[in-house]
Fold:
Amino acid sequence: MPRLLYSLILYLLLPFIPLRLLWRARKQPEYLAHWAERFGFYRTATPQPLIWIHAVSVGETRAAAPLIDALQARYPAHRILLTCMTPTGRAAGSQLYGERVLQAYLPYDYPGAVRRFLTHFQPAFGLLMETELWPNLITACKARGVPLALINARLSEKSARGYARFGSLISEALENLPLICAQSAADAERLTQLGATHVDITGNMKFDVAPPIDIAEQAKHLRELWGNDRRVLLAASTREGEEALLLDALDDKSNFLLVIVPRHPQRFDEVAALLAARGIPYQRRSENTQIRDETRVVLGDSMGEMFTYYGAADVAIIGGSLLPYGGQNLIEACALGVPVIIGPHTYNFTQVAQDAIAAGAALRVVDASAAMAQAQRLLENAADKQRMRDAAREFAAAHRGAVEKTMAAIEEKLLAAH
Structure:
């Protein structure tokens, strides 16, 4: 009955979905493409057999990279189908994997759309990344005998409270998943409290994402453009409102170059307008030109270069944590030995943030002003900065291995039962 009511509500909302897509297309025209796929209608050829991975957006798409490598090595006769829900996720998939994978949008969770998706692609098995709980999709996979697992699963206290409001709808979905691979013991506990019955703790696969092999060369080139004699503070994956707070805290006497990389590409022009309105001398990364002496800020308006930004930075402030967005991924910075500063809001990365702070790889601050002050201190204190660099690398290295554990669980507990 709860799932029937859930489906009824979805159908009542159906007329508003095109309006929502049109609204989002104002800033991101890519939302106008591939509408049919969102309702389960596909023209993509379907070579068999397929392994299906669902990664909702950019972060999950990047996190899937080492798993995709492992699956292609273990199942060379299979093709990978990568689904997502956002244009930026799809663009990231194209950039990262090219023709190595098929790509499509996962349909909205309407029973008919889900059936059309499974009929068209007929995946050998499916893997949902992180926190993708779609009751009709999970039920349809069980009914058709498609093995389905939730992997790299995380569930913050805030999300757990939200899911708990749906009671048996969510508990039924979790019970119907034959395998859940949780990032941490805390995630596993929250999932179990909501009704999950088959939970393994396998770690966070984002630790297994390797920087590009030529990252040192790319970072060296970028640093040369910025000026080897200038210290660089990176504000990585910033969210709406955070750029203004950081600029408010930017002292006129600050002698470092601030590099701001907004999380969402549709906001590049918005941040450029903010810098222009404040009269702050800035340049865009997309210009790919030498940074002038008077330039105080670089706007990182490029896609797929986050590792390069980290490799060229001295210290990083992680966006999404200064305002209540839950924080963004700090693991990439640690992997390249960059000292990390995070704000008070990291509920999407609770365990990672706690562990990084305990390891000496990250510092937590209360607001943007404190973040800038700590960054200035580190930029001026070579010894403290080096200690954090060493701690960050050690922290990242110590937590690798989640993909291997996840692959073992998939083979032993998901596929062995089918």
User: Anything to note?
Assistant: The radius of gyration is 22 Å. The domain at 2-203+401-415 is CATH 3.40.50.11720 (Rossmann fold). Residues 382-398 form the longest helix (17 residues).
